[in-house]
Every structure is written in C-alpha cells, then in structure tokens.
Amino acid sequence: MLDRFGLTVEVAASREPEQRVEVVRRRLAYDADPDGFAARWADEEADVRARIVAARELLPSVRLGDGALRQIAATCAAFEVDGMRADIVMARTATALAAWAGRTDVLAEDVRQAALLALPHRRRRNPFDAPGLDEDKLDETLEEFSGDDDPDQDPDPDQGPDGPGGGGGDGGQPEPEDGPRGDDTGATPEAGENGQPQPSGAGEQSAVRAAEPFRTKVLSVPGIGEGAAGRRSRARTEHGRTTGARRPRGALTKLHLAATVQAAAPHQRARGRSGPGLVVRRDDLRQATREGREGNLVLFVVDASGSMAARQRMSAVKGAVLSLLLDAYQRRDKVGLVTFRGSGADVALPPTSSVDAAATRLESLPTGGRTPLAAGLLRAHDVLRVERLRDPARRPLVVLVTDGRATGGPEPVALAGRAARLFAAEGVASVVVDCEAGPVRLGLAGQLAGELGGTAVTLDELRADSIAGLVRDVQGTSRRAA
C-alpha cells in the first residue's frame, strides 16, 4: 500500500527555540488580525505563485537524459525497491525539481532530492522498519552511475534547492559501518566459553540485534472470551457467525428469529390465537449469540541476566518476540514486555499495539547481572493486574523466556515458586521457553512451568521460527486438558 503514495515528507516540530518563538509569534499575529497578516505576506505569496507558474511553463522543455535515468534506475535497484512505480515517480519528481530551479536539464542533485522524497517509505518491509535512507549509500550510487551524457559532471554546489553538489560531495569515502573494530552492536567483547562473546566491565553485555522477523502461526487463548474485537482468539461478539440463541440480558440487540418462533409456537392455543398472526410475548424473545475473534494481551517476560547473555540465543529470542509483535499488529492485539536482570525487573514495554516502540525497546535491551526471577514474575503479575482494570475483557497469555535460574534476592527459588503460583491460581495461560545451555541441565525451567500451570520446551528443541508454533501447541494442550 505504501508504494501507492508517490512522495512523502517527514514533518517534525523544530527543536530550535528561536524558530518555535517565531511560529508562536506569527500565530498570535494571525489570530489578532487575519486580514492584516495576509496582507503582510502577500508579496512573498505572489513570488511563490509566479515561480510555480514559470516552472509549469518550463516543465515540457526539461530534458531527462540517459545519465539521469541510469542514476534513477541504479538508485531504486540499490535500495531494493519493489516494482517500477518508484522509478517513474523519481523521474517525474526530478524533472519537476529541475523546472522549479529554472533549468532545462535534470542534474544529479535533482535525482538525489527525488530519491529522498520517493524512496524512504518504500523501504519499509514491516512496521518495525523506520522510514529513511542511507544518504552515504545514495551519494555513492549517484557518483558510480554518473554517465558521460549527464550534464552534472562538475556541478556547482550552490545550484539547486538544497545544494548537495550531486553525489559524494565531501570527496571522501564513508567509513564502513561494519569492520574489525567490533560486532554488530558496536561493542568489542572478548570471546569466552563456547566461543560466545563475554561482557566487559561490571558483567554487562551491550544489546544484541534481533534476528529477522518472520511470519508466525496463529496464536489463540483457550476458551471463548468477550474481549475487544480482533483477529485472534474465539470470542462472543456482536458480529460474526451465529452459533445459537439465549434469553436476552437487558435490552434485545440481535433477534434470533427462528429461536423466538420456536419458543412461542407451543403456547399459541393457550394464548387464544385466532388469526394467522403469531402471539409473541417478551419471554419468547431470544437473543442471537455470535462468535467472532477477539484481540488478546501477549505479555513476554524475558530473562536478560548474565546466564542468558549468549548472543545467538538472545538474538533468536528477540527475533521471535518481534515476529509476534508484527503478528499482534495485524491481529489488533496488545503486547507487553517485562525484563529482569541485576537487582530487579522493569516494564520495558507497557501493553501497547505500537510495534515501532516495541522494536526500539527490544533492540536496545542489554543483558548481564544476576537473575531476579521472582521480581520478574511479580512485575508481570502487577502489569496484568493493572491491565485487567483498564481492559477487563482482554485475556492474557504469558510467555516466560528463561533458563529457570533464580539468583537474585533472599530465598530466590522459593520466592520464585510462590510468584509463579499466583499465575496458576488465576488461570493465566502460560508457556516457559527453556533457555538452559551447557552439558549439564538442571531442569529448572520445567519445574517453573509446573508451578505456573503451563508447559516448558527447551531452547535446544526450538528454532527461532517455531516459538509462535510452540505457544499455539501449548494452548491446544490446555484446551484438551480443559
């Protein structure tokens, strides 16, 4: 759908105090005297109007040379833009920019500006991707494909609306983003046991990048709910397929005609029916019950302690969470994220449908420190308690990602068990993703799953692209048990 939008412009309020002061000053001046304000700026508006008219008259004479066309095509290819609509939009935009500047030839600077208007939103592959372009890569592409017939071989940097000087105007190569200085997080940890980078400093490792998001299987919470309209779990809704009838509670909204007739028919003789009509009383009315889909709250509780610091493991976990966030966005769910490490637990992402905010929080999540498991579970319990007050009909699903160790606080194991039993007592659906590694396994995550009333699956048995399937399988197990 984004490809249908020709050009986009990012609009943001200025952070410069003087500019903000001027905005307020002009707004107050307009409110005080609209006619006088318009007269004050009439000359500037007339100049802009005349420039537009001149550009329109010049537009048919503007030449879009083969060199500029090659730059347009190369730029769209370099940024992996799907289809040909972007190429056409860029060609038209570059031509219009040349006419606006009063020129009859399209220069590299026009192509560059057209790319900044036509490509950023087309680069988005999913809601996690922020719109934008790598301008160094753009300049390199324009420089590489500047042909002999391109009139912008030695452009005047003062020309054009933005004066970028074509491509690569700084005359130097950009410093590569990836190199021997560090890993993809910008850190330079030393290799440790099992070849995994070890944190430096006070036992903390900088954030690792999430694996690529993927399409997940459909998740659903057991039973039938009555939550907000969505596209995930079964629910009684005002819309959907009719599944039965019942006596109305309060005002009748959706009449089930067949059930109403069936309820009234046996009593027609006793009610003295004498004509073709059906004598119906209020007790005969039946409300249609309908089944549709609801949105849910998927709350991730992620162990970010030092025992979880293996980079590949955290990358896979983050990728799975991001994938479920994307699925939740499409299915109108809420998703929350609680993390625990060091001395306590944090609500890294309050229940939300904003996948952009979720992706940002996950990407910046570091690991290291002790494992306050009980604190993480108690914080998750608080999040669910507050969310029930805000949205009581939305049913939750807790996904706990941990190796099961508990090392933070007094009596950590016993306290974690008591915290887990709170979820079991309230019937909250849950699954434990066992991330325990190494040749000796203690099975702590399985014990924790028993306390939660959920199911545990080891990370060794689990690929990143099957976490969503795991949740679905666990929910199916819960339904069969029920």
Q: Would you give an account of this structure?
A:
The chain is α/β, with parallel strands linked by helices and 482 residues long. It has 3 domains: 2-144, Helicase, Ruva Protein, domain 3 (Orthogonal Bundle); 234-292, no CATH class; 297-481, Rossmann fold, CATH 3.40.50. Helix content is 38%, strand content 16%. The chain is built from 14 helices and 12 strands. The strands form 4 sheets. A 6-stranded mixed sheet has the order 8-7-6-10-11-12, sandwiched between helices. Strands 1-2 form a two-stranded antiparallel sheet. A hairpin with a 5-residue loop joins strand 1 (190-191) and strand 2. The longest helix has 21 residues, at 311-331.
CATH topology of the largest domain: Rossmann fold
What percent strand?
15-25%
The CATH class assignment of the largest domain is Alpha Beta
CATH superfamily of the largest domain: von Willebrand factor, type A domain
Summed up, the helix count is 14
Average pLDDT metric? 79
Principal-axes geometry comes out as extended
| Uncertain stretches of 5 or more adjacent residues | 150-202
- Radius of gyration of CA atoms, rounded to a whole number: 31 Å
Biggest sheet architecture: 6 strands, mixed
Beta strand count: 12
User: In CATH terms, what is the architecture of the largest domain?
Assistant: 3-Layer(aba) Sandwich
**Terminus-to-terminus distance:** 43 Å
Query: How do the SSEs run, as a string of H and E?
Result: HHHHHHHEEEEHEEHEEHEHEHEHEH
Lateral arrangement of strands in the main beta sheet: 8-7-6-10-11-12
Number of domains: 3
Assign the structural class, choosing from mainly alpha, mainly beta, alpha/beta, alpha+beta, or little secondary structure: alpha/beta
Oligomer: single chain
Provide the helix percentage.
25-40%
